[in-house]
């Protein structure tokens, strides 16, 4: 995270904080495909920053449904790959000379927000010593456990968000599609996390919602040292160059904004530190936490930080987002940042489709906003809202029913087999498959699902065309275009 921190102000509050995840009728999946673009191309005249920020908080106070697991009858679900952002957390930065938000990070089942499985989850986590952990993860606490939250610690809200995600996925994948057999093996369930306690704990909460009282002895959790989940393919000089240019662009836009300048100066006066120090403390992160936890903004004897000031920082972020899209540097960064994860996902899907046991039927990657945001951008989902707390991106692999007898040779034909494979992509429960770069132009009248081959060809080659290259290696090791 450290190396990426200059980008954090941009990423902490993205533009498209759509206020609600629509609750839809489970019985009519066909409608989802008509919802082509959930984000209007024009900004509302006066976006209400407070209202939008609540969507980012993702306060677990209503029933949520998702379109995960919806497919024509007779299609078989082969595997599911989920990337999540950790749940609600304590700020990463403190506003100087003010009281930090008073939030208790102990898990207390009879305190709101809560979940029917919270007590059982706490008990189950206390037995986690029986799981197999990569070294960097073994010593992390498996539940948040401080009566005054530490910086960046997952809160009870964050745990509840992911218990709910897990339960939602359980209803469709485990109960309806029987994706994992009751005696699932360690090769069928793949779990990975960065080395932060909030990602590990978020992943475990989702897993518990998915498979209550899972057998610890079968679980192994892998450590991803990079927030990009790039495994052994992290070396990519061009990616770093695009990121640097993107940060330069962001910086120049910010320093040119006189209203933002005045706002930081006023906030700095209230707090009693130099403006530079106040800016460096990234106050919007802490203000968001206040908002998500229904706490009033901090005050000093000189006055209080205000919603109006919060709104101005937010307004600048909206402009930044538009500028970022126009300039395209971030997308170039994102394509290279997300490729290794996508490449691994595609490879696992192929292994499962070939009937091998080591592909993983359910794979969970527990990550950060700086992981999920580039993934969305790389997929071409420019209109997607910035990843809220406990956001989820889901890839599903499906196989259509076999062709009628007679039309089929006796030999195994991988090419023909692949033509029966399809992918779906979902973001926070919404089917975004036909907004992705690889299926946007797909003719849905001839074939209502997105062919896996489109996804495969995108990840292996097509995604690099923006970078005037045909492979990851070539794109990483040439001078940026
Ligand atoms: C959930 O909380 C948000 C933010 O406080 C609020 O705007 C919304 O009305 C609440 N929803 C329900 C169903 O209580
Ligand atoms: C939480 O911390 C307390 C004291 O710090 C300890 O007694 C308790 O066992 C811990 N619980 C868990 C689940 O780690
Ligand atoms: C938020 O706090 C105010 C008082 O500070 C209280 O009246 C209100 O009920 C709280 N809202 C929620 C959703 O807890
Ligand atoms: C992509 O996946 C293929 C097949 O698994 C592998 O051979 C290749 O090295 C991977 N490329 C990168 C850049 O990770
Ligand atoms: C794209 O790459 C080709 C050869 O790899 C090169 O000749 C061409 O100038 C490049 N185009 C741009 C816009 O960089």
Summarize the structure.
With 481 residues, this protein is of the alpha/beta class. It is built from 16 helices and eleven strands.
User: Helix amount, in percent?
Assistant: 25-40%
Question: Could you say which small molecules are bound to this protein?
Answer: 2-acetamido-2-deoxy-beta-D-glucopyranose
Give the overall pLDDT as a whole number: 88
Structural class: alpha/beta
Low-confidence stretches: 1-45
The number of strands is 11
Family: Belongs to the histidine acid phosphatase family.
InterPro entries: Acid_Pase_AS, His_Pase_clade-2, His_PPase_superfam, Histidine_acid_phosphatase
Catalytic activity: 3-O-[beta-D-GlcA-(1->3)-beta-D-Gal-(1->3)-beta-D-Gal-(1->4)-beta-D-2-O-P-Xyl]-L-seryl-[protein] + H2O = 3-O-(beta-D-GlcA-(1->3)-beta-D-Gal-(1->3)-beta-D-Gal-(1->4)-beta-D-Xyl)-L-seryl-[protein] + phosphate
Region (Disordered): 22-46
Structure description:
By secondary structure, the protein is α/β, with parallel strands linked by helices. It has helices at residues 8-12, 49-57, 118-125, 135-138, 156-176, 197-210, 237-255, 258-271, 275-280, 283-292, 307-327, 329-353, 369-378, 414-418, 452-460, 472-476, and strands at 76-85, 132-133, 189-193, 220-223, 299-300, 303-304, 362-367, 392-399, 421-427, 430-431, 450-451. Strands 1, 2, 3, 4, 7, 8, 9, 10 and 11 form a nine-stranded mixed beta sheet that branches. A hairpin with a 2-residue loop joins strand 9 (421-427) and strand 10 (430-431). Helix 8 packs antiparallel against helix 11. The longest helix has 25 residues, at 329-353. It is globular. The two termini are 26 Å apart. One 2-acetamido-2-deoxy-beta-D-glucopyranose binds at residues 126, 143, 145.
